[in-house]
Every structure is written in structure tokens, then in C-alpha cells.
């Protein structure tokens, strides 16, 4: 079984759960709420339990394989193309053709499953909205349950929201974006849903509840006979894609819909996965609608994979962009791989967001986004991500102008030249300097992000950029790496080394700066001190924690005892 019990303390099993109508072996430890009960129905829970019972051992095995791979990398091995799957990479085969509803995905907006944002995103003019249970969401019980309610209402077209402060009512437009849902990664537990006494895989809760309640309405209202549609995060190997494929097949069987109804885009956002793109597409070939360059987690994964390789240290986070050779090679190979297999190659997220109070800074930010999107469309990407509705017109303009009039570039941008991308290209160490300001910024951003996450916000604007779990991970692991190897900060001309003592001073000073910036009141009411403890502990840990959010998750689990579950 999945070893999530190590991560969250699970009190002894109870025989029954007051409030929720649970099937045998299912126990809900989250707060009772009558609205939540309309999601946590007996049948829906039975479906989630059947997925968990069917797939927990497969997930557990896949997580063990991740650990083994980590050991190999830590002993000096490098990620590489698998010789055993060479024939598969060289053979000619195609994924199922994209469903008509998804031919054109040139701009996709993303955001957490928060009610107003769901409506705004669906109305934003983007072709797709990716509703996020992952990088952009702090998965506390309230966020999760409300997220499912919001998605159910969105799929049925009945979602509305009354902003009382502004006396504004939000409703869906006639024309809306197509909805994708991103469940959490395999590694995250859902500690409020116990099955047979153990926390459930978070992604199976996210997928199972959403699929159970929405497959039918989605196919009618959104998917033109196909769907539901998903984004799949943070995979490291095609064996993990096989599990998703089997989950999809099991769900289709339960619903009595044809194989290949469900479609999913896999984020290539770990370094090992870039060597597995054909294999991942092959596993999901009946269910695939392409791959996406999840650039922020990818950078995080580069550091994580090379945590024991002091010759592959990253420069300042702001210098690790898509212009670096390893990033460009990854995007080129992803496009070539997808188009060869007949599916979309999606671009990623530029971190800039609109800057309301400074027109010239706003224009500069927009220009950076335009440049990033121009690079993507000229490289052959079929669409890209937008973090904010205010960016959509500029992004759409770039893609409209360079897509040659078609809905995508699958058959017009084959990128055969990228067949020559080699392992060395994908692994090349990024160039640039390391600076004290880089260390300070990582610290300031990391602490503020964790503070936001602990209080329920999984994506936040910080210093005019979008920050989420993936971008914050880069700050954390970069600090860890610099501390571990006591790197010299060569960007300042001072030659200072990053020691525990220096870091301690930086943390103190950055906490003072955060307090000045957010104000005393917000600082004392927020969770900055707790966040600082979590972040600093992780940066200085002798062994790198696999994920920032795993430790932080323990701080947002609230187990409701039997007697108070109706409060
Ligand atoms: C690495 C990755 O995984 S990227 C994907 C995951 N990350 C994300 O999805 C981040 C998505 N973006 C966001 O969460 C937000 O844009 C933030 C946090 C970056 C900025 O949020 P804010 O500062 O609140 O934005 P701002 O105040 O400018 O919002 C203006 C309006 O746009 C709306 N808005 C902003 N971003 C979004 C969005 N992504 N989707 C829908 N609506 C949005 C707001 O709801 C607000 O609506 P209103 O005028 O009706 O009240
Ligand atoms: O999920 C996207 C990323 O960049 O990470
Ligand atoms: Mg990501």
C-alpha cells in the first residue's frame, strides 16, 4: 500500500463516520458540511475506494522506483534514454487523433479551483481552462471540497458567484473555454479520506470525485462526445503513465463509455521524464492529447535530480529561462516528439503578470510575455499557458499571427531537426552567475509562498510575478544546493560563500524585510514565522526533502474527531 501513513499521523480507525454516508472501509476525517456531502456521496466514495484498492500497490511500486532512480543519480548516474525502449522510439506509431473539441488550444489559462476564478477563467476568451488541484492549489479540506463543488457547477453551466463587496454577480458566458482538470501528483496523500485505514492517493481523490460527478454532463456540454479532459503532473517514468492509462480505462468501464473517451495532456516537468516522452505517449496513446512543457517544475527537477552533482549547480533563478540550452533542447524535442505522434505540443507558463499601478513596468512585463510566446509559436508549439486573463489578448495575438491560419501546427511544424537532440543537450548545465540577491530573493519568495500556502492560497503574486508550488520549489532547492556545496556567490564580486551562518543572517534580514513590506499587522496575523521555520528547515536539511509541500501538508491537515464532525 502507499506509504502515506509516514507523512500524516492517522488516529486509529473508527467503525463509522458521522455525517457522511461512507461505504465499508471508507472514513472521512474532514469537516462535515451538507454541501460537501453532495460530493462525498456513497457511490462517489465507493468509486474512489475501488480506484485506491486497485491501484495503490502500483503507485507504491512506482514511488519505490523513483527512490531507486534517486539513489542511482545520487551515486553519479545521469538520466538517459532507455536502451530497452529504443525500438519503440524509432517505430512509426500514432496516438489517437485529438477530439474535435480540442483541435485549437492556442491559449490555455490556468488557475486554482476557486469559484470566482473558475468563472473568470472559463469566460476569459482562452480556448482551454486548466483547473488546478496541483501547483496552484493549497490542498486543504475546504479548498478541495469547494473546488469539486465549483467544477460540478461549472460543468453543468450553473455556476455563479456573488461578490458582495462589489455587488457584482459572476455567471458563465455563452461561449466558454474547454475545461481540463489537473489532479495532484502521485506523491501527495489525501489525509482526510482514509480507505481501509490509510490516506488515499490525492490524485485518485481529485480524479475520482471529479470524474464520477461530471463525466456525463461534461461529454454533453463541453467535450462534444469526448472527455472529461485532464492534465497529468510531475511524472518521472512511463510506468506512471501506464497507471493513469489503467485508471482511465477503469473509469470508462465504470461509466460504460468507450475506451479513449477520457483525454489527457501530460506535463513533461521532470528531468527523467524528458527521456521518456515517446514511452509516456505510447502508454497513453488511446487517451493522449499531447505533452506540455512544465518549465518551472522541470527546473526544480533538474536541481533535485542532480542534488549530489556539485558540477551541475544552477545560477540565480532569474537566469534559468527558456533561452538556456537545456531548456530550449527540451522544448524542441517535446515538439518533435508530439508532432511525430500526431498530438499537441503545448508551451508553458511565463511568470509575468499584469502590473496594475505602473504602466511602463506593465508594458515591459507584457513584452517579456510576448517574446516568450513568440519563441514558442515559432518553435512549433500548438498553444501555451497564460497565468492571468489580462495576458490573453497579447498571447493570442502572437499565436494567431504565426500559426499559419490552422488550429494547430501538428502537421506543419514537424521539427525533424530536433531528432538530433542528445542527452548532453538535455543535461547541459545552465550558465550564469550566483548572487547574494539571488539567495535573498529565493528566501523572501520561498517564505512568503509557504505562508500563503499554509493559509490556503496556492498561487500568489509576489514582486510582480506569479508564484506557485513549482516556482517556490526552485527557490527552496536552489538554496539547499548552494548551502550544501557552500557555493561562492560570484555575481557580486564579493566572493562570499553560502554557509549556514550566512543563510541564518539572510533569513533574519529577509524576515524583517517581509514584515516591512506586508506591514506589522498582516505579518503578525499571517503564518510567516511558521513558514520561515518550514522553509529554513528544508533549505538546511542534510538530505533534500523530495517536495516542499509534503512537509507543509502536515500543517494543513485537520482531522475532525467523531463528536465534532457536524460542527
Ligand atoms: C508552474 C505552474 O504550474 S503554472 C500553473 C499554476 N499556476 C497558476 O495557475 C497561477 C494562476 N494565476 C493566478 O493564480 C493569479 O493570476 C495570480 C495569483 C498570479 C495573481 O492574482 P491576483 O493578483 O489576484 O490577480 P488580479 O488582482 O490582477 O486579478 C484581476 C482579476 O483577474 C482574475 N484572475 C487573475 N488570475 C486569474 C486566473 N488565472 N484565472 C481566472 N481569473 C483570474 C481575478 O479573479 C480578478 O477578477 P475580478 O476582477 O473579477 O475580481
Ligand atoms: O506545471 C507547470 C510547471 O511549469 O511546473
Ligand atoms: Mg508543475
TrEMBL record:
Keyword annotations for this protein?
A: Glyoxylate bypass, Glyoxysome, Peroxisome, Transferase, Tricarboxylic acid cycle
Q: In which pathway does it act?
A: Carbohydrate metabolism; glyoxylate cycle; (S)-malate from isocitrate: step 2/2
Malate synthase TIM barrel domain boundaries = 178-429
- Entry's Gene Ontology BP terms: glyoxylate cycle; tricarboxylic acid cycle
What are the Malate synthase C-terminal domain coordinates in residue numbering?
435-556
Identify a single GO molecular function assigned to this protein: malate synthase activity
Catalytic activity annotation:
glyoxylate + acetyl-CoA + H2O = (S)-malate + CoA + H(+)
Q: Name one Pfam family in it.
A: MS_N
Q: Which InterPro entries match?
A: Malate_synth_C_sf (IPR044856), Malate_synth_sf (IPR011076), Malate_synthA (IPR006252), Malate_synthase_CS (IPR019830), Malate_synthase_TIM (IPR001465), MS_C (IPR048355), MS_N (IPR048356), MS_N_TIM-barrel_dom (IPR046363)
The record's subcellular location field reads: Glyoxysome
Its Enzyme Commission number(s) read 2.3.3.9
User: Transferase among the record's keywords?
Assistant: yes
Malate synthase N-terminal domain mapped to chain residues: 24-85
Q: Active site at which residues? A: 182, 468
One GO cellular component assignment for this chain's record is:
glyoxysome
Keyword hit for Transferase: yes
Regarding protein family, the annotation reads: Belongs to the malate synthase family.
Q: What name does this protein carry?
A: Malate synthase
